[in-house]
Amino acid sequence: QVQLVESGGGLVQPGGSLRLSCAASGDIYRVYDMGWYRQAPGKQRELVAGISKNGVARYADFVKGRFTITRNSAETTVYLQMNSLKPEDTAVYYCNAAAMGPRFDYWGQGTQVTVSS
Asked: Which ranges constitute the DSSP H helices of 1-117?
């Protein structure tokens, strides 16, 4: 089992910044990739950013240059620094951990990000 707890969401004005955190616990040794997804009402869940165990980051095109995914050295916390936020960034943001042995995806409870004036 892997438990993921997100924090850092909230209300921010367009152009503002937020930093999301995802704290992982449990069988962390099984995790080989972690990332952030988001889901807006009526929309499919979509990848925002991911980071592999070797530290390689990847981003959706719509956040490149604005968002940065990082992790702590112990690989127990993943962060998503979100800058230049736009109203279309409004969504519930979910932390994801991909594990193996057995293969399974774990999800956090989600944290709401609202970008509005």
From this structure: none
Count of CB atoms situated within 10 Å of the CB of 12:
17
Asked if 95 and 4 touch (Cβ cutoff 8 Å), the reply is yes
Residue 34 in contact with residue 45, Cβ under 8 Å? no
How many angstroms separate the CA atoms of 77 and 72, rounded? 6
Beta-carbon-side half-sphere exposure of residue 32 (alpha carbons within 13 Å): 6
When computed from its CA atoms, the radius of gyration of the chain, rounded to whole angstroms, is 14
User: What is the residue whose two structure tokens read 């955190």?
Assistant: 21
φ/ψ bin of 65: left (φ > 0), alpha (ψ from -120 to 50), beta (otherwise)? left
Tens of pLDDT, residues 35-65:
999 999 999 999 999 999 999 999 999 998 9
Taking the mean position of all CA atoms in its chain, how far away is CA 66? Answer: 14
β-bridge partners, 23: 5, 77
